[in-house]
Amino acid sequence: MCGPFGWGGFMPVSPRKKATVEDECSRCVASLTLPDPSPVSFQKHEFFVDMTCEGCSNAVTRVLQKLGGVQFDIDLPNKKVCIDSEHNIDTLLETLKKTGKNASYIGEKSA
Asked: Cα–chain-centroid distance for residue 31?
């Protein structure tokens, strides 16, 4: 015996009509409706973080980047961090405290 099927070749494959992308898409698109994408609602919050040097601000940057879903500005001289985020205040505050620095919520920041 030769080969896996005993006759020395591969199993014959019957020719099939190949479906094209256009065939498949025209059937799908007609019945597919997508919801309008809505932007993620980010809220702006201001926090006090007892930062004394660039190392402190780097620690804040690290923990916030690890959290994700945030945009932030650090004001080192005034020891403030302004965060635009989808996360709640408690999550943001606990994240800032992971730096080992004293942190507190100042309030919502207006645009």
From this structure: 29
**CA distance linking residue 57 with residue 108, whole number of Å:** 21
Contacts with 89 (C-beta within 8 Å, 6 or more apart), sequence order: 45, 105
- Domains observed in the chain: 43-108 (3.30.70.100)
- pTM, rounded to two decimals: 0.62
Q: How many other CB atoms are found less than 10 A from the CB of residue 81?
A: 25
CA dist 44 and 107 (Å) reads 9
d(CA 56, CA 30): 55
- Averaged pLDDT, 52-78: 95
